TrEMBL record, chain A:
The keyword Ligase does not apply. Binds 1 FAD per dimer. Its cofactor is FAD. It comes from Stylosanthes scabra. The electron transfer flavoprotein serves as a specific electron acceptor for several dehydrogenases, including five acyl-CoA dehydrogenases, glutaryl-CoA and sarcosine dehydrogenase. It transfers the electrons to the main mitochondrial respiratory chain via ETF-ubiquinone oxidoreductase (ETF dehydrogenase). Heterodimer of an alpha and a beta subunit. This is Electron transfer flavoprotein subunit alpha. Pfam families: ETF, ETF_alpha. SMART domains: ETF.
TrEMBL record, chain B:
The electron transfer flavoprotein serves as a specific electron acceptor for several dehydrogenases, including five acyl-CoA dehydrogenases, glutaryl-CoA and sarcosine dehydrogenase. It transfers the electrons to the main mitochondrial respiratory chain via ETF-ubiquinone oxidoreductase (ETF dehydrogenase). CDD domains: ETF_beta. This is Electron transfer flavoprotein subunit beta. Heterodimer of an alpha and a beta subunit. Belongs to the ETF beta-subunit/FixA family. It holds the Pfam family ETF. InterPro entries: ET-Flavoprotein_bsu_CS, ETF_a/b_N, ETF_b, ETF_beta_N, Rossmann-like_a/b/a_fold. Residues 23-213 form the Electron transfer flavoprotein alpha/beta-subunit N-terminal domain.
């Protein structure tokens, strides 16, 4: 006859084995986003970062968490399962609750999955989604998160920019598990599709039976839709940016035409967004988007510290400005003092067509 | 309804930062300090809500060494009704700040906490989210527009996100963090600076608020970012295209 002590003992043993098997499965959890049936590129950068935590050997095993509902979620799960050799498990939280990127249910989900999986690291990309939910999740887990990481020195030592990227801070995490990170996707390459016939990672459902019903304290109302025709500013190989010198939104068409000619994305300075020339999602800078394209061309941009913070890691920087003393010329690889209203049309005329 | 605003004293946004030669941090000696620009915006929003008649009191909170009182006085001069200074000489990470704010909330009971989205020194962008998590309050981060409905006890927040503007609706009490375009903060006028001198400031230590400052992060070193190779000036569009094609090979 089973006594209470025997039953409790059995339950304790089960959770012991459960946590052992979970940590064998994945010591790092990547909180990923998906869209149209695929894992988003910056979440794949997070997988790259997660894989590097094991020191580059195959021992690092990564679990990828996806949430939402519908067939596109399951398609994305398949994509995640074959996205990187280090991915050993994909966790799917299938519920309408996670359809919109509200911080409250998502942070609770991360908390729940951590309780189930006891990960050593939890990583997400440092985009507006990751920035919104990961610190909240860290607070629920009573740990200090390390955000916007650009370099991994070892499993608990990270580099991140401070003072708008004018200094780099190397910080060591000394707390208990989990170590929570958000990473700058421009610093971690999206894994290349490999032809290795590696077995696909397992895909399993997150047990949501203990997920606290939220009292509906927050509601997702709407989202302005992004222009899908433009290349994504965060990933584009070429970025053409305009500043306030463009004078109005009509003139910004010059920037758009040049971007189109070079197959690039359009960026803007804070001044141009504040003035209403372009919407906020084009802003490049300390508090806007961080970009690191092959080619960054800045027209009528003075080069304020806060703008440089968003583009200083670009491979080649070109600046065109009427003012020879504009600070942007100090970071530009090629600088041209001139009137952008003359230079851009001339470029449009003389540039070779995009291959 | 009471609004609590957290404000931080940071190196002024226009200062050119220098990394200390011993790599322990950046030079702060004789460097101009100011209220974090995002915190100014947070305080401005709170003041506007009070001025519209939807709130009765704005309490400004700052944490750190005694020099922080300068920033607090600026906040009072802008129009905050009362100030709270949590004095600490040890470094405070967002988790500590969040815990202190949570414990202050137990006494003050505000319906809204407004913070700047990030401090321009550490660029963390964590504190608001952490306070909201600790309190289990909903959060509206990176706010570009805030509309309060006092009767329904909810607030609608437009947020600046990667794809544009996202609108969320939150039940009060809630936490909001401010983005750049939410408002243009006012300057403190001289009469208000004088008035501020008699506004009350309450002092606490973290210990008095039952928060133990036990850091789980250690700064190993602070260094300069890699320097870019010096660039060249070109004199024509033709020369630019030539260099981009043949030298840089990006087109």
């Amino acid at each position: 006859m089973a006594t209470t002590r025997m039953i409790l003992g059995a339950i304790k043993k089960r959770s012991f084995w459960h946590s052992l098997s979970s940590s064998r499965h994945g010591s790092t959890l990547v909180v990923a986003e998906h869209e149209s049936g695929a894992v988003k590129p910056h979440s794949l950068s997070a997988v790259t970062a997660a894989a590097s935590l094991g020191g580059g050997n195959d021992k690092s095993s990564v679990s990828v968490l996806l949430a939402g509902s519908g067939p596109s979620l399951h398609q994305a799960a398949s994509h995640a399962a074959s996205s990187h050799p280090s991915v050993s498990q994909v966790l799917v939280a299938d519920s309408e609750r996670f359809k919109s990127p509200l911080a409250e249910p998502w942070a609770k989900l991360v908390h729940l999955v951590q309780q189930q999986g006891s990960y050593i690291h939890i990583i997400a990309a440092s985009n507006s989604f990751g920035k919104n939910i990961m610190p909240r999740a860290a607070a629920l887990l009573d740990v200090s998160p390390i955000t916007d990481v650009t370099g991994i020195s070892d499993s608990h030592t990270f580099v991140r920019p401070i003072y708008a990227g004018n200094a780099l801070c190397t910080v060591r995490y000394m707390g208990s598990n989990p170590c929570i990170l958000t990473i700058r996707s421009t610093s971690f390459a999206v894994p290349q599709k490999s032809n290795n016939s590696k077995a696909e990672a397992s895909i399993s459902q997150v047990d949501l039976s203990n997920f606290d019903e939220d009292l509906n304290k927050s509601r997702y109302i709407s989202q302005t839709s992004q222009d899908d025709e433009r290349p994504d500013l965060g990933n584009a190989r070429v970025v053409i940016t305009g500043g306030r010198a463009l004078k109005n939104s009509e003139n910004f068409k010059l920037i758009e035409n040049l971007a189109k000619k070079l197959g690039g994305a359009v960026g803007a300075t804070r001044a141009a967004v504040d003035a209403g020339f372009v919407p906020n999602d084009l802003q490049v800078g300390q508090t806007g988007k961080i970009v690191a394209p092959e080619l960054y061309m800045a027209f009528g941009v003075s080069g304020a510290i806060q703008h440089l913070a968003g583009m200083r890691d670009s491979k080649v920087i070109v600046a065109v400005n009427n003012d020879a003393d504009a600070p942007i010329f100090q970071v530009a690889d090629y600088g041209l003092v001139g009137d952008l209203f003359e230079v851009i049309p001339e470029l449009l005329e003389k540039l070779p067509e995009k291959k | 309804m009471k609004i609590m605003v957290a404000i931080k004293r940071v190196i002024d946004y226009a200062v050119k930062i220098r990394v200390k030669p011993d790599k322990t941090g950046v030079v702060t000696q004789n460097v101009k300090m100011s209220m974090n620009p995002f915190c100014e915006i947070a305080l401005e929003e709170a003041l506007r809500i009070r001025e519209s008649g939807l709130a009765s009191e704005v309490v400004a909170v700052t944490m750190g060494p005694s020099q922080c009182l300068d920033t607090l006085r600026t906040g009072l001069a802008m129009g905050a009704d009362r100030g709270i200074h949590v004095e600490s000489t040890s470094a405070l990470h967002p988790l500590h700040v969040a815990k202190i704010l949570r414990n202050l909330v137990e006494n003050e009971k505000p319906s809204l906490i407004i913070l700047g989205k990030q401090a321009i020194d550490d660029d963390c962008n964590q504190t608001g989210q952490m306070v909201a998590g600790l309190l289990n309050w909903p959060q509206g981060t990176f706010a570009s527009k805030v509309v309060l409905d006092k009767e329904k006890e909810e607030v609608t927040v437009d947020r600046e996100v990667d794809d544009g503007i996202e609108t969320v609706q939150l039940n009060l009490p809630a936490v909001i963090t401010t983005d750049l375009r939410l408002n243009q903060p006012r300057y403190a006028t001289l009469p208000n600076i004088m008035k501020a001198k008699s506004k009350p400031i309450k002092k606490f230590t973290p210990q008095e608020l039952n928060v133990e400052i036990k850091p789980d992060l250690e700064i190993v070193e602070v260094t300069e970012p890699p320097k870019r190779k010096a660039g060249v000036m070109v004199s024509s569009v033709d020369e630019l295209i030539h260099k981009l094609k043949n030298e840089a090979k990006v087109i």
